[in-house]
Write a structure and sequence with these properties.
The chain is of the alpha+beta class and 241 residues long. It has one domain: Sandwich (Jelly Rolls). The chain is built from four helices and 14 strands. It binds N-(carboxycarbonyl)-S-(naphthalen-2-ylmethyl)-L-cysteine and fe (iii) ion. Fe (iii) ion binds next to loops.
Length: 241
Amino acid sequence: MGLAAFAQVSGTQLVSSFTMHSDADRMASDLFANSEGLSQEDLGSGARLLRGFVASEETAILSTLREIETRAPFRHMVTPGGFRMSVAMTNCGPLGWVTDRKGYRYDALDPVSGSPWPAMPPVFSALASKAASAAGFPKFEPDACLMNRYEPGAKVSLHQDKDEPDFGQPIVSVSLGVPAVFLFGGLKRSDKAKRMQLFHGDVVVWGGPARLRYHGVLALKAAQHPLTGAHRINLTFRKAS
Ligand code: MD3
Ligand code: FE
C-alpha cells in the first residue's frame, strides 16, 4: 500500500474504525478520500462503500426512525417456507417489502396495521439520493425503505435482491449501531464470498453488475453501541415500482 493510501486509511479511523478484508483485497481496490475527507472504496463492479457517509446525521436519522417505529413497529416476518426471520423489519415510503407464507413482494399497506406505510421522511430520501449521486447514480429516487433491526445472533443468509422491477436502479444501504460482518458473494450462490465489516454511519451503493450479487450478514455479535444499544439497524433504499 502506498503512503498516500495509508494517510487516507488513517483519516478514516477518525470517522469509523477501519477494518477491511485482506490487504490483498484492499490493494486491489480503489481507496481514496472524497471532498468531505471520508474514504470511498470501489468494491468492484458497481458497488461503492462510503465510510461514515451519514455519521454527521446519526441523531436525525435515529430520531426519525423512532417516529416511524411508533406507527409501523419492527416485526419478525415469516418466509414462504414458514421460517421466522431472525431480523425484525419495518418499512417507510410508498412501498414496503414484506414476506409471509404467500411469498415475497412489495405492498403499499403494512399488513399489521392495514394502513399505508409511514411516508418516506425527507431526511431519508435526501441522504439516499446524495449517496447514490456520490456513487455515480445521479437520478435515484427511492420509493421504498426497508429497515432491518438485528439483535445479537440475528443474521441474513446469502440471497439476491430481485423483487424489484428494474435492476438498473441501485440499492443504497445505511448501517447504524453495532458493526456486522457483511458477506459479498458473486452472481452464483456457490461463488466465494468476501467478508467485510460495516460500521455505524457507513453507506454502500449497490448498482450496475453488483446489483444482483449474492450477499448476507453473519450472526450479530453481542456488543453495545451508545445510540442503538445491542442492535444493528440497516436501512435499504430501493426503487420498487
Ligand atoms: C448487495 N440487507 O435487506 S444491506 C436486504 O445489512 C439486505 O441488513 C443486509 O441484504 C443488511 O436485502 C445487507 C447491503 C446490501 C443490500 C442490497 C444489495 C447489499 C446488496 C443488493 C445487491 C447486492
Ligand atoms: Fe439483500
